[in-house]
Structure formats: C-alpha cells, structure tokens
Amino acid sequence: MAEDSTLLAQAAIAPAAPTVPSKADVAAATKAGQDFEAFFISQAFQNMFAGIDTDPLFGGGKGESVYRSLLLQEYSKVAAKSGSIGIGAEVTREILRMQENQGPKKS
Fold first, then answer.
1. What is the pTM of this model?
2. pLDDT tens digits, residue range 8-56?
3. Could you give the CA distance from residue 96 to residue 39 in angstroms, rounded to a whole number?
4. C-alpha to C-alpha distance for 12 and 81, rounded to whole angstroms
5. Per residue, what are the HEC states of the chain?
6. Would you give the end-to-end CA distance of the chain in angstroms?
7. Strand, coil or helix: what is 97?
C-alpha cells in the first residue's frame, strides 16, 4: 500500500512527455537560434579578451573583470541580433527542419 502511494507521488512529480507542435514555432526557433549565436559569440569574445589586462586608470581588479564579462555578453547579444555571423540563421533553419520532419504521429 505504501509502495502504491509512493508511485503515485512520483508520477505526479514527473514532468509530462513533451508534445510535438502541429505547426512549426518560428518565433521560438528564431529565439533559440539567436541565443545560440549569442552564446557562441560570447565564448569567442571571452577568449579574445582573456589576455588583455584591466586598465589601472579605471580601477581594474575583480570588479572590472565581472563587469567585463557582462559587457561581453551584451556585445554578443547585439552581434547575434544583427545576424552578422549567420550561425543563428543556420540553427533556426535546422530547428524548423527538424520540427517539419517530426510532424504529428500517425497511430
């Protein structure tokens, strides 16, 4: 009896199975593509700025390194939104292609 209540409790906690949308969600795919491109560019910017020391004239130290990472994240978001590299468009295209291939399942 205790096992039955435990199984019911676990079933209530478990997330529902993901559903496949009947139509391609272009807005969500575009956002995912831009987010991926922003992350990629952010990693590239971090590598580019890794060897540059902080300027002692403006304080330097730990605070500047924290704000530098935030600044690089914002730079990468702007670059991704412009689509200048094109990775986001490719990711969006691939997501939409995968959604089309899934389609509704036939029983």
1. 0.64
2. 444 445 444 434 444 568 888 888 999 999 999 999 998 988 887 777 7
3. 20
4. 40
5. CHHHHHHHHHHHHCCCCCCCCCCCCHHHHHHHHHHHHHHHHHHHHHHHHCCCCCCHHHCCHHHHHHHHHHHHHHHHHHHHHHCCCCHHHHHHHHHHHHHHHHCCCCC
6. 35
7. helix
Is 49:68 a contact under the CB 8 Å cutoff?
yes
**If you average pLDDT over every residue of the chain, what do you get?**
76
Six token digits for residue 24: 């391609």
**Rounded to 5 degrees, what angle do the CA atoms 77, 42, 69 make?**
95
Sorted by where each begins, the domain ranges of the chain are 23-102
